[in-house]
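For this section, I looked closely at the sequence of one protein beside the tokens encoding its backbone, which the following lines show:
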Amino acid sequence: MRMYDLIMKKRNGGALRREEIEDMISEYTAGRIPDYQMAAMMMAIYFRGMNPEETVALTMAMAHSGDMMDLSKIEGVKVDKHSTGGVGDKTSIALAPMVAACGVKIAKMSGRGLGHTGGTIDKLESFAGFTTGIDSARFVRQVNEVGVAIMGQTADIAPADKKLYALRDVTATVDNMSLIASSIMSKKLASGADAIVLDVKTGSGAFMKTEEDSFALAREMVTLGNMAGRKTIAVVSDMDQPLGYAVGNALEVQEAVETLRGRGPEDFTELCKTLGTYMLIAGGAAADGQEARRKLDRAIEDGSALRKLAEFVEAQGGDPETVYDTSLLPQAEIVEEIISAREGYVTKIDCEEIGICSLLLGGGRETKESEIDLSVGLVLRKKAGDYVAAGEPLATVYANDRQKLGIVKERFLNACHLGDSAPSRKPLIKGVVRE
């Protein structure tokens, strides 16, 4: 194989064969293809695109570039869930124990947050002692015994994707649907689950800003998963404003716990139940949506979902008492409200800006080396469509630094838009993409 010939082939609009893609990824991962040639290939793909067969071949080649998790010793169907990232997205913390309490095995690999989106692992570490640094043997054993385990992504999972993404990031070739889909799905397929439910966000706080792009990405990923032999379903959900009310690490954990007690925000609860419905069906625990909903409702009402969260936290070294007493979670020293200067209706919330507010308080990372303050963040008091009177709070800020608090208050007020009439309510669930 000559990389020069492959670049020319793709540049001229040709389709790469599976063997060519496999060799290319293998050689690049091993360091035998230089970055400048792979950058040329990425640019050729960016302009010429990839057909479904090429995209599947690229996805599988990246998935097999490192370790493939062997979950065959886990009894029953293993289900994974992935979100494309958003603000206030603490879904896995409530969803995983809900689904596990209904009898479906959850074997999940998660990452940390970077930029304005939070990471599941960071949030879970709000439970003192909790660790996702577990080996594969312990991971498999825990899924069998507890029904749910979440481990951190390792350097040996899809290393080709890590290397390729870093190159795309600095060569303006990130924004290609096939490359985005193969990047996400290579890690999911390497993680070993039998079925995958995807939560594809759309809106101002999401990676994909338009519904058209979000549905296109959802279709691409569902096609990839199903062609690779994994039952895959995607739910496209709104991220034009934060999910729920809490944005931050410990604050989001507290909201997830309240949701398992049946007292969660309407939108967050609905998303958990929607995703959970498809996970139960994919896992064989429910024949249809009605049965799945009944089981999820019962798991909340009888307390089994909350108990499953405590069991899961304890199994991974965390303090289970924190699940029943969230005052044990990290607490910020400063708690202040952001007051509205006028009356009106909240017409729009710049979702990404709210995520940046949490980051500036210390609740997120600007670089991979940044230290996170688990206690800080914001809790919205009003969301789009709500009426607010002059002097009424728009949000509560949790901080440990008064200078950062002042900056965040100003940014929040610029991000929260008020008008004289209420905007039309947007649906949370935009649609579902299946095979």
